[in-house]
Design goal:
The chain is mainly α and about 240 residues long. The protein folds into two domains: about 80 residues, Orthogonal Bundle (Cytochrome Bc1 Complex, Chain D, domain 2); about 100 residues, Cytochrome c-like domain (Cytochrome Bc1 Complex, Chain D, domain 2, Orthogonal Bundle), CATH 1.10.760.10. The protein is about 45% helix and about 0% strand. It contains twelve helices and no strands. The longest helix has 18 residues. The chain is elongated and about 75 Å long. The relative contact order is 0.11.
């Protein structure tokens, strides 16, 4: 009788365990399941996997525009950042990330990246009261005048030839110009590279900030020197000359 009771109790316990499968030994809990790639919405995860390689793990220190710069976030609104993340910049190293443009990210994931950049790095108040040049050019630049502007504001650091200057590398080298867009040039002129000690549009000549037109002019001059593909020096040759 005792044996029958023990067997019955065991069967009842086994049946209860089968009904509550989440309680089975070795079965993963719901919160331990690996999310599908298109379900990841964490800013840290998305930024680390898609952005940090070029823009730096903390939003600075990479080869591309630092995203943790309050000045950059003061001139570039969310629509501009979203547009670049979605569609990339043709002809440069910035790829398109949106599925609609051949990338891997959903609109929700791109929104998470844009919101995360703004919330983490854009709400510092450091640019309050500062009137900045507009992110996008408001008119045509004058290339011949841009050469004069370059000599005034840029040559002391970047030099006048392909080899660069005493403080920074060349921005007139054809290979460099073939890899960057006009908007990138404009943005870097406005923001500088604070992570590398390069001044923004206010600090190239003490007490003499660049005007919006001067920025447009120097971009026009630089872009006029951008070569066609057949004339671009190979990257290996360019890097070899720098070493």
């Amino acid at each position: 009788m005792k044996l029958r009771s023990s067997v019955t109790a065991g069967l009842l316990a086994l049946a209860a365990a089968c009904e509550n499968r989440d309680g089975l030994p070795g079965r993963p809990s719901p919160d331990s399941q690996v999310a599908r790639p298109d379900q990841v919405t964490s800013f840290s995860a998305l930024y680390g996997a898609n952005c940090a390689g070029c823009h730096g793990p903390g939003g600075r220190g990479g080869a591309a525009q630092p995203l943790s710069d309050p000045l950059f976030l003061a001139i570039a609104d969310d629509d501009a950042i979203r547009r670049v993340v979605k569609n990339g910049v043709p002809g440069t190293a910035m790829p398109a990330f949106a599925r609609s443009a051949g990338g891997m990210l959903t609109d929700e994931q791109i929104g998470s990246i844009v919101d995360g950049i703004r919330q983490r790095w854009g709400r510092t108040g450091r640019m309050a009261g500062v009137t900045t040049p507009p992110y996008e050019a408001t008119g045509q630049g004058n290339a011949p005048q841009g050469e004069v502007v370059y000599s005034t504001f840029c040559a002391s650091c970047h030099g006048t030839g392909d080899g660069g200057g005493p403080k920074a590398g060349s921005v007139t080298n054809p290979t460099y110009l073939s890899l960057v867009s006009n908007q990138f040039l404009r943005t870097v002129i406005i923001t500088g590279r604070p992570d590398f000690g390069a001044p923004d549009w206010r600090g190239n000549v003490p007490g003499r900030p660049m005007t919006d037109q001067e920025i447009s002019d120097v971009v026009a001059w630089l872009s006029s020197q951008r070569p066609t593909i057949r004339n671009v020096e190979s990257a290996d040759a360019f890097l070899g000359r720098l070493n």
